[in-house]
Every structure is written in C-alpha cells, then in structure tokens.
Amino acid sequence: MMAMVLTVAAPTKINTSSSSSRLVVGPKSPYCRSQESGLVCNFTDAQEPVYVQDSLFVEGKRADLSTSRKVEMISPPILHLPDVTCVEKMSIRNTYLVLVTEDKATKTESCTHLQELLIFNSTVTSIPSSVTHLTVVSSKVTYLDLPLCIQRASLINSHIKFFRTSSPLRDAVVNVASCTIDHIEELRTSANAMIHFLTTNITSVRMENVKLGQNTTLDIRESGFMPINSPELGISSGVKVILNNMKGKLTVIQLAAAKKTNAIQHLPAHHTTYYLVGFIICLVLLIVLFCIVVCFKCIKYGKNIVEKGNGVCMHSQPRKRDKIKSPTHTKLESEQLLEERKTLPAAESQHRNTEISSFTGSNLNKEGERRSHSVEAVGDDDQQQPQTPPHTSLHTPSSNKQTYLSDSVRKRAQYSKQLKF
Questions:
Q1: pLDDT score recorded for residue 97
Q2: Among 155, 311, 324, 333, which is least packed, fewest CB within 10 Å?
Q3: Domain coordinates of the chain in residue numbers?
C-alpha cells in the first residue's frame, strides 16, 4: 500500500513542476535561434503562453546582446509583452492574442527601450508606450493609443476599435489605409504632424477632441467620416485640411481671428464647390451673347445696304419703269399701262402715215410750182442756154422720208427698251 502511494505521488510532483515552468523568449530559449537578422523564435507547435523576459536579454556578452535585440516571434498562441522592454526591434506574426502588461523591466546600462514594433496578422490589446515606429498590417487592435514619442505609424488593412492620442503628436507621420476605426476618441497634434486617412471607414469621431496644431496636415481621401455632436472642425492658422471624395459631412471653420475679434469665418464644405461647372456655364453664356451681338450687327448692315440700293435705283431709273416695278401701284394703274403699251404702236404708225402723206403732197405742190416758173422763164429767154432742172429736188422727199423713218424707228426702239426695263 505504501509503495503504491509513493508511485502515485511521484508523478504528481513532476506534473506540478512542469506546469510551473513557462515558455520564454530569449537567447537561451529552445524555441529561439540566433541568425544574422536577429533572434528568430518559432512557437508554432507550442500550446502555452509565451513571455518576454528582459533578464534573458541582459545576461551574456554584449556581442550576444547586439543580435538578440532584434527579435522575430512566429505563431505564439498568447504572448505577454511588457510595456517597456530592452528589445530594440520586435516583429510579431500570426499571434492569437498579444497582451501588453505594465511590469517593470530590468533597467541596466545596456538596456534600451523598444523602438520599432511590427505586427502582422495578429490581435493586440494595446501598444507599448516606448514605441517610436509602429507598423500594423492585417491585424486587430483593441486600444490604440499613440505615445508621445511616436515618429511614424502605419496602419494597413486593420481593424481598430478605439483610436486616440493621449499626448499631442509632434513631428509625426500617421498613415491609415484601408482600415476600419470604430471610434476616434481624441486626436491632437502640437506641431509639424501629418495624418492621412485613405479608403478608411471611421464610424464616429468626437469633434470636440480634435485639436490640430501649427503646420499640421489632415488628409482624408475616399474615406467615411462621421462626426458626433457637431460636424464643424475648428482649425487655426497654419493648419491644412484636405477633403477628397469624403463620405459624410464635415465643415471646416477658421479660428485664426477668434482671440481678437471673437468672430468665426466659415469656410465652404468640401462638397459645395464646383469651379469647373461654373466656368463652363459662363463660357456658354459668353458664346451665346457674342452670337446675338453678331446677328444684330449683320441685320443692321443688311438693312443699310438695301436702303442704299433702293435709293440708287429710284434716282437712276425712269418714272414709268418705277411705276411698273413699284409694288405700291394699284391693279388699275397696271392695267392702264399695259393698254398703253398695246395701243401705242398702232397710234404711232397711223400718225407716221398721215405725216408722210401730208409731207409728200406739199412737196409735190412745191415741185409743180417750181416747174411752171421754169417754163415761163424759158419762154421769155429763148436765146439763153437751156437749164436742166435740178435732180436733187426730186430726191428730197424720198431722203426726208427715209430720215423720218429712221428717226421714228430709233425712237420706237428706245421706247420699247424702256418698257422692257
């Protein structure tokens, strides 16, 4: 019976001793190996929590410390990370949960604070307060409080539940891309800070806790931004706010002269300025106005030309032509003119025949009288030489007749031309 009790008690002691031992990260850990890039610890097969102990990094020679201050941890199930550690650069990958504790670290002359922290595909409760360079990729952070000493922070494709800056950032650059932030409780900068939100969805922002210092740039591009209580963001001189394709309502107000005049200058919201549309509208109006002016000028110029042409025609053309061409004549006057055209040639020919007959009769009578006188003269002077009567007198009527006919034909032709015009 006693032997059996002893055999049972022995394994009980072994189990308790094994349970009291824990997995640690350090140069002497069986899971860690020293490489050129630093200390690499692979906890893929481990099922127990892993602890980072500063005492393990302090022990040994300085040559070992220089390589062990760069640590890469792969797949620890649960990692306990002190708030202050002697590791300069730490990389955490594929960790189910990272717990940041406030245990006091061992302080020696060779110990330096954690400067660079890289987190990939892990879940982290918080961030150590001594980090100067932070990179979070495809991870979840419950409470992200950027410390005062932060110089650069890059958050990519991650989910952050609470985001804040308890101390104003100075000379810092914060890049947030393709992330989801549930709450921004506080965002403060003192000077020379740049904060970029790209394709990030921010569910709520406490605008009263957003304070931007001098030479600070806030750039929000293609992101959702939902203010709480008030959509106004007050900025001072030297602060630059860039809003590009932002989803939500945010009004930027200038607070530069608030101390002296207690007046607030309201700046227009980012989605109310459309310079291109206004420019196109003004250009179209100017083109239409120019076309209207040109049309009026052309109409006025055409009227002047028509009036000048009518005046020249009225002075140069005869009255009968104007009478026929004028549209103001009545129908009766037009018919009378046409009858005159028809009766004029017949009357002219009859008048010409009567003139020719009268002229011929008078010429014949004169010729007979001349011949009788010549016969008497011959009877009285028989000894004188006989004189032949002039033949020109016989041809005079015919020549006069031809001259009259040619004059009448010429006048008739001129009159017919005038009627045609």
A1: 96
A2: 311
A3: 22-110, 132-272
